[in-house]
Design brief:
heterodimer; A: mainly alpha; 78% helix; B: mainly alpha; 2 strands
């Protein structure tokens, strides 16, 4: 227990040191910092406005009201932006494998996976995430259907981040095994962008494929549906089990990939 | 002229060399189409008219924009000019007996031709799978005008992308930022997600004061036969003026940039 606590302290300290470095580096490019945030705000606002215009003309979209759709979008953006905030370093992983920087990770007393996954927070995404969280919290009363749905929403949101972590671990594993990280990351981003709209919108078998096999629906749509009171407790438990299962499989894949790793250069 | 045609050929060869990369890029395009297509399919539900568009017209709009996007917006080289400036690679290009503008344009044309071909195949398969109603234009005048606008729209996007990339002469590390912001704005303002005329008049008037609608929205509207002959001619004039203005801006930025270029990367 004490060892685990010390380890956790150690990783928090390392994460904070890496984050400080990442923040200072990002703030050095103030121009890029401001334009990037503006771009994110434009993207989120424009798409939300479009969905609002669409639903107000159709009265509802696959049974969702305008308020519910806006909340779905807010949840999507929290998971999407939150994942980018936590795992931005995954986007830089390929260059580290190619130039051999990753070799240094293996000889340090820090878990290589943790180091590769959490290479420091992205301050730009953090700047967008905070207002998103505030808006979402303020918006919840407009769509909330009870106390239990709120608890399920929080649990399933955490589950979404667990699934996102699993996906990023898969990407890192691919990076070790094949060097193909960049495209894998962008494919992941495009897959998750399917969750921008409720997965009920897609026709069979696409909705089944992206709900349960590649669990985009569980990540993006299910938490909001839980808040609307549309997800029973047993289903929520099943989704959490799926999330934990995927996470464990990703860890196994990472172990296998690392065993096959041979340094490209140092 | 021969050397530029050869560059187009080289660009196509380059795309086909990295087949996995190219294949995964195509998959990304299909995901992007899916989000917009199924969203509109759900919005229409059982009704046949929305925002003044029939189902067939809206699906044609979505598919047309997707096809155009693969053709017009796949030109990565015009936007990658910034990287060539920052790394000093530009030096290798400007010492050659080539116009830099025509060099980049030729490579982008090669890039877009191959993407257009594959996009046409993907969209055909997509439409066949989902049995989507489509509007088929039979008036040769509209078809001819659409092709002209395809070319003009490509030039507008190319000039904007290249000019913004040239900001690397001054802002070096952050040259990607204005492209990111403008790319986000263009995605919506060009009609990439929805036709611009569904927006309130005040907003669409502002958008029409920019060159963006002539990249995707206007060419597809012409194809749908929803633009009168007067407006088509007016549109061509406006587009030609924008191309002249953007060409002038490009020339000024290029000349000023070359004066301060120091090839740091080399």
């Amino acid at each position: 227990m004490k060892l685990m606590a010390n380890n956790i302290k150690k990783y928090i300290k390392v994460y904070w040191l890496l984050s400080k470095s990442a923040i200072l580096s990002a703030l050095d490019s103030r121009y890029g910092f401001i334009l990037f945030i503006l771009g994110k705000i434009v993207r989120i606002t424009a798409f939300t406005y479009f969905m609002y215009v669409l639903v107000t003309h159709t009265n509802s979209l696959v049974g969702y009201s305008a308020k519910q759709l806006v909340f779905l979008l807010l949840t999507f953006n929290i998971v999407d932006t939150g994942s980018q905030f936590l795992f931005r370093d995954v986007y830089r992983f390929r260059s580290k494998v190619i130039n051999g920087e990753i070799d240094g990770y293996f000889i340090k007393p820090i878990n290589v996976l943790v180091r590769s996954l959490l290479g420091g927070m992205d301050i730009m995404d953090f700047t967008v995430l905070i207002p998103l969280l505030i808006i979402t919290v303020l918006y919840i009363p407009l769509v909330l259907s009870g106390g239990l749905p709120l608890i399920l929403y929080i649990i399933l949101l955490i589950n979404s981040f667990l699934i996102s972590t699993a996906f990023h671990i898969f990407i890192l594993g691919m990076g070790i095994a094949t060097n193909e990280v960049e495209l894998a990351v962008f494919i992941y981003r495009d897959l998750t962008s399917l969750g921008k709209i409720p997965l009920d919108v897609y026709k069979y078998p696409i909705n089944v494929l992206f709900s349960y096999i590649i669990p985009i629906g569980i990540m993006m749509t299910i938490p909001a549906k839980a808040l609307f009171g549309q997800i029973p407790v047993m289903s929520s438990i099943l989704f959490v089990v799926l999330g934990i299962g995927l996470f464990l499989i990703s860890l196994k894949y990472w172990d296998l990939a690392v065993k096959k790793y041979s340094s490209a250069s140092s | 002229m021969k050397k530029y045609l050869f560059l187009i050929y080289l660009s196509i060869q380059n795309q086909l060399t990295y087949r996995l990369n190219f294949f995964l890029q195509r998959i990304r395009s299909v995901f992007q189409l899916m989000v917009v297509y199924f969203l509109w399919a759900a919005a229409y539900g059982t009704s046949n008219s929305l925002f003044g568009y029939s189902q067939a017209q809206m699906f044609t709009y979505v598919v047309g924009v997707s096809l155009l996007r693969s053709y017009i917006m796949s030109g990565k080289l015009s936007q990658g000019v910034g990287e060539k400036i920052v790394t000093g690679e530009l030096s290798n290009i400007i010492i050659r007996p080539l116009s830099f503008f025509k060099y980049i344009l030729s490579l982008d044309i090669g890039n877009t031709l191959i993407n257009l071909l594959f996009s046409a195949v993907e969209i055909s398969v997509f439409l066949w799978l989902f049995k989507s109603p489509l509007f088929i234009q039979t008036n040769y005048f509209y078809i001819f005008a659409t092709v002209i606008f395809f070319v003009l729209g490509f030039m507008i996007y190319f000039l904007i992308g290249t000019s913004l990339s040239l900001s690397a002469f001054w802002i070096e590390q952050d040259w990607w930022a204005p492209i990111f912001l403008l790319g986000t704005i263009i995605e919506f303002a060009s009609g990439g997600i929805f036709p611009i005329d569904i927006l309130p008049k005040a907003i669409s008037t502002i958008i029409f004061a920019t060159p963006f609608p002539y990249i995707l929205y206007f060419p597809v509207k012409v194809y749908l036969g929803q633009v009168s002959t007067d407006k088509i001619i007016q549109g061509m004039l406006i587009t030609a003026i924008w191309i002249l203005v953007l060409s002038l801006i490009y020339k000024i930025i290029w000349k000023k940039g070359l004066r301060i270029y120091e090839a740091y990367g080399k």
